[in-house]
């Protein structure tokens, strides 16, 4: 079974602040302009909705209003996807062809490549965890993680330090070509973010 990453460039703090914002105007805009997307998701999760899971719009409403949330943990995935929808509508989708689809421990392998280049401030495997903003309930799928502006700046500094060391020694860490390509894609995400104050990356694994 394969997984995928959806990665967005956005203002991390502003996006997290949408949770519990009670912004009914935002909800109205989404319902009016993306009703077909909401209906498509409801069709995909029709069985779960029949079992009591919230619809896509109900989950979105709960996220924006900070609750109430279903007490059934099996339904928590809908709130994760609702937050992902907010990220997709307020952020810019980043190229992720090195990660979609992926199998097995690929994210961990890419992290090892980042580490080999001295980059420890960020991790793609973090996108696998349920790090949703409070008070959203935890869920395994979709996984969620974020790279804050500070972490991105630190990671790029770490990479530049490694480049200087390689230039002096003439020896680069031995990495497989596909790992190098994935690491370069991660660096591209970070470079897109670093020039925009407050911007970072939020990613989802599903």
TrEMBL record:
InterPro entries with a match to the protein in the record: DUF7691
Pfam families, alphabetized: DUF7691
Ranges where the DUF7691 domain occurs: 1-205
The protein, known as: DUF7691 domain-containing protein
């Amino acid at each position: 079974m394969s997984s995928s990453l959806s990665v967005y460039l956005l203002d991390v703090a502003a996006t997290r602040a949408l949770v519990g914002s009670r912004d009914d105007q935002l909800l109205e805009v989404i319902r009016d302009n993306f009703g077909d997307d909401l209906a498509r998701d409801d069709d995909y999760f029709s069985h779960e909705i029949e079992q009591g899971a919230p619809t896509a719009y109900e989950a979105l409403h709960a996220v924006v209003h900070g609750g109430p949330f279903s007490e059934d943990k099996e339904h928590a995935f809908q709130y994760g996807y609702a937050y992902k929808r907010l990220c997709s509508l307020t952020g810019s989708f980043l190229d992720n062809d090195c990660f979609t689809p992926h199998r097995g421990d690929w994210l961990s392998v890419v992290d090892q490549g980042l580490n080999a280049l001295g980059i420890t401030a960020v991790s793609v495997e973090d996108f696998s965890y349920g790090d949703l903003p409070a008070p959203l309930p935890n869920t395994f799928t979709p996984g969620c993680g974020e790279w804050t502006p500070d972490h991105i700046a630190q990671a790029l500094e770490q990479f530049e330090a490694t480049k200087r060391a390689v230039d002096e020694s003439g020896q680069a860490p031995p990495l497989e070509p596909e790992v190098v390509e994935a690491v370069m894609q991660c660096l591209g995400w970070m470079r897109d973010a670093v020039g925009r104050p407050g911007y970072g990356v939020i990613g989802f694994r599903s």
